[in-house]
Design a protein that fits this description.
The protein is an alpha+beta fold. It has one domain. Helices cover 31% and strands 24% of the residues. It has 4 helices and 5 strands. It has a 5-stranded antiparallel beta sheet with strand order 4-1-3-2-5, sandwiched between helices. A hairpin with an 8-residue loop joins β2 and β3. The chain is globular and about 40 Å long. The relative contact order is 0.26. The mean pLDDT is 89.
């Protein structure tokens, strides 16, 4: 059985991306996990960033408010209040990101030089 039992979608505001990346680095991640640009129209400017991944119970605990060792609890709580979090069993991974985008009124931003219709 895999440790990655959960499908997680996280969405953060663009204005706070640097703070979330710094927190990610404190948690031992690269700090570049929020890599999916989003906006209400699907056009630039980007207003939010998304992350779509499979994860462990330990990370679900963090997303549920368990402040990790070495992280300022006030900063952690402030950032946690700004993000959209959706957690499902990993068996529900397909379509999870699209469901959250639809519910939040967001779309992936496709840069003009990467137009998929050409």
């Amino acid at each position: 059985m895999t440790d990655y039992q959960y499908a997680v979608v996280l969405i953060i505001p663009d204005a706070h991306k640097a703070a979330f990346e710094a927190l990610g680095q404190q948690l031992g991640h690269s700090g570049h996990e929020y890599s999916i640009p989003l906006s209400a129209s699907g056009q630039e400017p980007v207003t939010h960033w998304g992350l779509n991944t499979l994860t462990t119970q330990a990370f679900v605990n963090v997303l549920s408010g368990q402040v990790p060792d070495g992280v300022d609890s006030q900063v952690f709580q402030q950032l946690s209040s700004l993000q959209i979090v959706s957690i499902k069993p990993s068996s529900d991974y397909r379509g999870h990101f699209a469901e959250v985008l639809l519910a939040e009124g967001l779309q992936s931003v496709i840069p003009p030089d990467q137009d998929l219709e050409t």
